[in-house]
Amino acid sequence: MTKITIRRPDDWHLHLRDGAMLQGILPETTRHFARAIIMPNLVPPVATVADARSYRDRIVAAIPKGDTFEPLMTLYLTEATQADDVARGKAEGLIHAVKLYPAGATTNSHGGVRNFDKVMPVLERMAEIGLPLCVHGEVTTPEVDIFDREAVFIETVLDPLRKRLPELKVTMEHVTTADGINYIRSATKNLAGSITTHHLIINRNAILVGGIKPHYYCLPVAKRESHRVALVEAATSGDRRFFLGTDSAPHADPLKECACGCAGCFTATNTMSCLAHVFENAGALGKLEAFASLNGPAWYGLPVNEETITLVKRDQPVSYPAKIETGAGPVTVFDPMFPLHWAVED
Ligand code: DOR
Ligand code: ZN
Q1: Whose CA is nearest to atom 4 of ligand 1?
Q2: Which one of 43, 59, 71, 301 has the largest count of C-beta atoms within 10 Å of its C-beta?
Q3: Beta strands 3-7 and 308-313: pairing type?
Q4: Is 15's C-beta closer than 6 angstroms to any atom of ligand 1?
Q5: pLDDT digits (tens, 9 = 90+) for 50-71
Q6: Does the domain made of 3-344 have the CATH classification 3.20.20.140?
Q7: 228 CB under 6 A from ligand 1?
Q8: Alpha-carbon distances, residue 245 vs 33, 118, 149, 304 (angstroms)
Q9: Is the pLDDT score of 89 beyond 90?
Q10: pTM to 2 decimals?
């Protein structure tokens, strides 16, 4: 097969930032994607419906002329979040999920949750009104090895929370382990998982072998190869519980190429080419549409997109810019370390 047409994809986990960075990187997403769940980890975080409304306006103002794109807003869960505010945001069609960052888990997560008892009233209301909780699934306990943080989170936080509140819909975001995949598969309801482009392609060697490679460092950190294989298996299976959330997370190069570099891979530019490669290699190109365009809307209770995109396999490798120049500095585009032959037709 050298050509495939699918419904226009959506990105169910995206960092757009604000200001000059937003302006610079938004076209990389709107070129191919119709909608995206927008992460709220700005400084300060998008914590209230009023914050989300004005952030949405800034995103909409930055959409390039001629592109159509719908930002699906989320709220950053803090111990001060008000259940009524969240419910109002959902009722007015603005808020599509609430994001849980365990305090300290990743970029701008210090305002996150330390004591779950404090957020139970909000979570109970969300369960009532059917609003999903998007979860950054890593514990932050210093004693826990960074490569075990997802597995320990499932056992000590996520599973107890789901037992306490079985009606709460939970999206386990950027799943990076076979443990996460198996946990989602074992659930009978109210649990789904997003998988990033880069975690389908790299394992931890990409970060550490042959010198330290900051552009492959993200959180949750990529794990060993057997986990990557489990992620590919889940993504290409067609199982409705797994869908694309790129976690494309731009940082200006100087903030990644330094002694304490930020976490995040920027994959917005070449995600669809990368995914077509991964799915073709797995003999599952026919499942790409389910992963990128069908399963996410079904989970979030939204219609699928009516437009389509066509991917074509070229004889010559497709070239992408190495960096996106933004008013906030250059952002390095994810390098999958193999030539890309699939391109989205204009
Ligand atoms: O790699 C990551 N980058 N993981 C996250 O959870 C946050 C994100 C960011 O905001 O840069
Ligand atoms: Zn993220």
Answers
A1: 219
A2: 71
A3: antiparallel
A4: yes
A5: 999 999 999 999 999 999 999 9
A6: yes
A7: no
A8: 11, 28, 20, 16
A9: yes
A10: 0.98
